[in-house]
């Protein structure tokens, strides 16, 4: 797998990382997960050169972190980067302009969930500790700043990151200028190209790593959804792909299929578009089965897309605003 530099932290990571939301299942997540298949997929990824794993306590209420901890212990000879996230105390995704830092990430809550994560992972530290929601109005509040500085000084975290709210890539720019943020995780894909406007230039200037999440638009860019797609009760996708989202999403994916080069799948095209951008440090597709791992990691060996195709893909940009269902 090709490698990229992870911003000012100076790490070298595989350009295709591993997003671990769907792999653990659990309340409020994705249905159909099982540990045996998930463990096999994780092991396969390590074998193929994947070394960046993104999790969060809320993924399976700690189960995703426990799975990652077991993976690390099964591969003691490999340097696997662990990135996790504490949940907001109010359990509200995303935060809003009315959210108060004291209600979302007070220091005692950050410390509690750092220790919960370390216990679940079974490791003495995490490589990247990421706020799971964020408001740029919190940028200069000393409560979060002092907390992450102390965590770093005690060797419990190596870097600090922010997972930017959906469709709000601007909502972190002032915080980056505090000098305390090493990485941003942001939705970036064929549809969601807005991070290129302001966020990526700021990250380039400040040497902040970029983790591209939701490369398949929660499934739209796999090309498998239809207007009639439904999921089992309790699956998070039912709350995201409401009729006003599912219909336009499927229509846009169908238009993309018309320009697919011969022999290329839509997921491959989606990942290669993201990796065409040198500002991206790593992309983290969800991979619940070994077959997903093989297909997604193989993209790293492909040649860059032609500039003509990239230019055509840019016309599929879809600027959206957060709504009650976008989460």
Q: What is the structure about, briefly put?
A:
The protein is α/β, with parallel strands linked by helices and 327 residues long. It is built from twelve helices and ten strands. Strand 7, helix 6 and strand 8 form a beta-alpha-beta unit.
Structure, explained:
The structure is a single chain. It contains twelve helices and ten strands. Strand 6, helix 5 and strand 7 form a beta-alpha-beta unit. The two termini are about 35 Å apart. Helix 1 crosses helix 2 and helix 1 runs parallel beside helix 11. The model has no long low-confidence stretch (mean pLDDT about 95). The protein has a single domain, classed as TIM Barrel (Alpha-Beta Barrel), CATH 3.20.20.100. It has an eight-stranded parallel β-sheet with strand order 3-4-5-6-7-8-9-10, with helices on one face. Strands 1-2 form a two-stranded antiparallel sheet. By secondary structure, the protein is α/β, with parallel strands linked by helices.
Query: Taking strands numbered 1, 2, ... along the chain, how are they ordered across the largest sheet?
Result: 3-4-5-6-7-8-9-10
Q: Shape, please?
A: globular
- CATH topology, anyone? TIM Barrel
What is the CATH class?
A: Alpha Beta
Task: Name the poorly predicted regions.
Answer: none
Strand content: 5-15%
Query: What string gives the helices and strands in order?
Result: EEEHEHEHHEHEHEHEHHHEHH
Radius of gyration in whole Å, from Cα?
Answer: 19 Å
* Overall average pLDDT: 95
Proportion in helices: 25-40%
Number of strands: 10
Number of helices: 12
Secondary structural class: alpha/beta
Gap between N and C termini, in Å? 33 Å
CATH superfamily: NADP-dependent oxidoreductase domain
CATH architecture: Alpha-Beta Barrel
Biggest β-sheet: count, sense, barrel?
Answer: 8 strands, parallel
